[in-house]
Amino acid sequence: MWTEAVAESVAPLTPTSRLLVLRVPGWPGHLAGQHLDVRLTAPDGYQASRSYSIGAPADGERVELAVERLDDGEVSPYLVDGLEAGDRLEIRGPIGGWFVWRPEQAEPVQLIAGGSGVVPLMAMAREHARSGSAARMQLLYSVRSPVFAYYREELAALAERPAATGGVAVDHVFTRVAPAGAARPAGRVTPELLAEAALPASLEPTVYVCGPTSFVEAVATALVEQGHAPERVRTERFGGA
Asked: Do both 88 and 115 map to the same domain?
């Protein structure tokens, strides 16, 4: 069922993305990792809808999205360049029950993100911190360069937090431009890098992978080849928006 949301705040996140906080009267709450649909209606009646991951744990009627602008997209250009505080949107959700993390999960967790695929994983990391979970959690985040990295300061703070009280180990992989002092030169996530940087299959972690389709498929294939049980590798992929 579609319902109306109001943009409570909008703010730049990177040069090509925006952080949106929506207020949704009657919002039922959501799990970390779920998404929602946004629908826009043009003056001539044409409608377009796209799915966006929720970037923060449940917080009353507030829902946070981080939207990357795709120049040929039908919805994201408006959300990034046109939406203003006070504007209204149609949304539907929350959606999804497989690609979620719950605080009662005690097993190790490996998060692997490509680009804006970090958004639902950030909801998991935030929920992990909020609940003070002692479950081991680490994030491998592939992104073009530091300027395009989402949530940089908050991820740095989570990385400083003790692992036993909700801390998250964070490892960036910069594919085009690596900053001075980076742990490795610029390059893509390869099977060799996964074997070095991700939690090993012997620990039986639940792995959440989110990003562009080609990234997700390559990472999931490599993980299974390295011994991870397919049912422990949960994936979410995205296309045009």
From this structure: no
